[in-house]
Each structure stands twice: as C-alpha cells, then as structure tokens.
Amino acid sequence: MEQTKNNIPVDWEPICTRVREIAREAGDYIAAERKRFTADRVEVKGVHNFVSYVDKGAERIIVEALGALVPEAAFVAEEGSGRVDAEAPYQWIVDPLDGTTNFVHGLPPYAVSIALWDTRAAEAVVGVVYEVTLQESFYTWKGASGAFCNGEPIHVSEVAGVDDALVLTGLAYGLDAKVVEHFERSFAYFNRNSHGARRLGSAATDLVYVACGRADAFYHINLSPWDVAAGAFIVRQAGGVVTDFAGGTDYTFGRSVVATNPLVRDEIFRLVAGTEFIK
After folding, report:
1. Contact at 8 Å (CB) between 171 and 200?
2. What pTM does this model have?
3. CA 270 remoteness from chain centre
4. Between 20 and 30 A from 104 (CA), which of 21, 27, 199, 239?
5. Cβ-contact 168, 209 below 8 angstroms
6. How far apart are CA 18 and CA 138, in angstroms?
7. In this structure, are residues 264 and 254 in contact, taking their beta carbons and an 8 Å threshold?
C-alpha cells in the first residue's frame, strides 16, 4: 500500500472499518476473560504496573489480524508482539488493554487502542479506541469529515473556562517526586476550581472522552505512544487541540500530552504545563 497511487490519495476509511472490527474482536475476548479472571493470574512489570495473559492474548489477536491487513506495516505494541522495524513506512501502534489495573479489579473503563502511523509523514492516518465495558467504538481516519462513536459524529465541548470544565488526568508509575507533587497540586486545584478532576485509569479512554465532550481537558506525563496515538488523533479530528507540555506536537512519542477543546486550551495549558504549579 502506498501513500498515493497514481497521485490519488489512499482511502483510509475501509482500513479504519476493518480496524474497528479487529478492536471489537479483541474487546469481546477481553470481556469474556473478565468473567473468569482471577487476581492470581496477574504479572508485575514494575511498581504497581501490571500485565496479564489477557493483555497478551488480546495483543496476539490484534497483531495477527493487522499483519494481514497492511503487511508492510511494523508494530509498536505494548507487550512487544509483531515485527519491529523503525524504517517501515507504516507502524501499527497498539495497546491491547489500556487500563489493565482497572481490568484486574473489575472496574471500568478499559479499552483497546489501535493507530496506524505514517512514518514518513509523522502522523496518524487511522485511529480506533474501543472501550470494552460500554462497547463504544471511537474512530476516525485521515480524510474523514470528523470523528465518530458507534456511527454517530462526535465533537469536543464548547466549555470556555476552567470554572465549568471537567478535567481528566492520570499519574504514571515511577515519576520523580517533584513531578508527582506538581500533579497532586494541579489535581487539588481542579477539584476546587472546576467541575472536578478525575483519574479514570485509561489514557486512551480519557482522550476519547475529551473528543466526544464528556470531559473538557486531559493532561498526563510519562505516557507511551500506544497510550496516546489513537486517542489524540481522534481528539484532533473531533475539533480539539493536542500538544505536548512544551506546546509542540511531539505528544505521541514525547511522553507528555495536553488535550482540550480550543476554548479552554490556553487556561488549561497555563495551569498544567506552565509556571502556575511548577516553581
């Protein structure tokens, strides 16, 4: 598959449709396994950082299906499955189970996140996040007229200020104490000065909830590409603004992200990535 064929852009929609099916298949597997899952089947990757046979099984389902869909694409997958080739023209960026800790405890949300990344253009061309517990498929593709959830168009909110905003965040594992303090202070600030701050435990879900207007902003640091790639693309296609903590565009691989609607963006960015809390 080429970016263009006879100077005609690739139609990414049918690829997105198939990726939605693959994400749903993995989600069905996750939901079925949750019914018989027990905590003694959890492996520890790091401090409070878990993986299970379900993560690995879902990734196998996804990688096998995606490999047949775009054979020249390599993989950036959380559990390390699939062919790795940094020079491949396309990369599948896959989180088979975003929100493993939630899954382990039987607590929503948790999601399958899949993005197709154009290596040469340094951009996502397909993004799908399937939230398993509500069976909601959020998706978009390059050239789409927006973003969608279960067939319906979605758009970021029109909230114009922090006072009226619901803010989502998360705290990654292994952060420096100063960074943790900053996040604790920002979390407390939003709880006092907005409609509230929430930690849902799934960055991919956080992002698509901003995309569909259920929340107005999301910020996080020390994330991996598979946490961000699909959801950030969906936010942008839904009319939102996504940057890294420096205000640039390296949020997929740069390990920090701020995603908001356009109206509240400057205020949120100043509070979480500027000098308001970091002294």
Report:
1. no
2. 0.92
3. 23
4. 21
5. yes
6. 13
7. no
Listed range (74-83, 126-135, 182-191, 217-226) with the worst mean pLDDT:
74-83
What pLDDT does residue 80 have?
A: 76
Report CA-CA distances (Å) from 133 to 67, 137, 176, 212, 265. Answer: 26, 11, 33, 17, 29
Distance CA 115, CA 124 (A): 6
Q: What is the pLDDT of residue 51?
A: 64
How far apart CA 196 and CA 199 sit, in angstroms, is: 10
Is 26 within 8 Å of 130 (Cβ atoms)? yes
Buried b (16+ CB within 10 A) or exposed e, 235-246: bbbbbbbbbbbe
pLDDT at 10: 80
pLDDT at 47: 41
Note whether 132 and 111 are within 8 A (CB): yes
